[in-house]
Amino acid sequence: MTATAQLAPQLNPDAAWEKLIRRDKDAGFLYAVLTTGVFCRIGCGSRPPRRENVRFFGTAAEASSAGFRACQRCKPTGPAGSNSLDRVRKHIEANLDRAVPLAELARISGLSPFTVQRNFKREFSISPLAYQRALRAGRFRAALKEGDSVTDAVYNAGFSSPSRAHEAAQLGMTPARFAQGGKGERINFATASTPFGWMIVGATDRGLCWLALDSTKATAEATLREEFPLADLRRDASLSKLIDAALASVHEGSDLSHSLRSVEALDLRGTVFQLRVWNALRQIPRGETRTYSQLAREMGMPNSTRAVARACALNRVSVLVPCHRVVGVSGSLTGYRWGVERKRKLLDAETERTK
Fold first, then answer.
1. Domains annotated on the chain, with CATH
2. Biggest CA pair distance of the chain
3. Is the pTM of this model over 0.70?
4. What is the DSSP string of 30-97?
5. In sequence order, which residues have a C-beta less than 8 Å from that of residue 163 and are 6 or more positions away?
6. Pairing mode, if any, of strands 69-70 and 186-194?
7. Second label for 182, Cα 20 to 30 Å away, from 75, 147, 251, 280?
8. Active site residue ranges
């Protein structure tokens, strides 16, 4: 493989590398990785390469002629579409009060409906429709917490009915109950002793909403009561299978979401940004770690390191949404909601199983 057809000489390689580290989507060039033989867009969400393995190219044709193949994740041979996606995103944000069909987004972006859907989901880890719903849900939850009536919050957030708000807001409970701290909502739970401490799982009828670790059975159960102080909490031994599945996800690498039967969904509640971070956490391979800044760069948001760290800290479903795989810049095991020593044990168990 050769790499003689490199970036135009007017761009300094060091400057190009800085743009790559920042994931500057407007950089106007591509990069290739010698160890993989793949070339990518600068904003690709793939794992950051080592500096010595990187080559820069002005066009896809140059990269191909040097022997590199196109990345299947960021599709560097297709239209860049970053400005188009920005227009799509802004259009959705400006029209939360009505449905925005894909055909409309296609017209304003100059792309086909299929391409809009595919590129938007790849860029933002969420579909255009789900993005709109999440924005509405965030507005809705904020209004409830500020004391608005359920009816006012529903329609001011852009929903056509309370049932639509309940469905899209990912509350796991009715709007009124959410506003009242879960009053009257039923959450089943189970606890068990594990190598990582006492584990508790909690589930609404919509899905798994809580998975925490603590030093004793009593303190583990207290975490659920603190999160849902007015909910009707009921012990349910059948949910212990979720604890077994969570442990299997650590020791065997199985995906807990494929092990769920009676509870097949995750009842995660958060802002659009938080949901993106939690989704990105699930993409970190077992046995590997990322720093907060690396995770932010992989998400295409290199200036959002502190916000990423905050979203990790607010994760309600440990192990399955593996925030324990994110470490400090020096590799230190800092900032784990369930305790640094448990974080160490989880990482050691995952690393040992991947050897």
1. 13-70 (3.40.10.10), 79-175 (1.10.10.60), 186-258 (3.30.160.70), 272-354 (1.10.10.10)
2. 68
3. no
4. EEEETTTTEEEETT--SPPPPGGGEEEESSHHHHHHTT-EE-TTT-TTS---HHHHHHHHHHHHHTTT
5. none
6. unpaired
7. 280
8. 40, 323
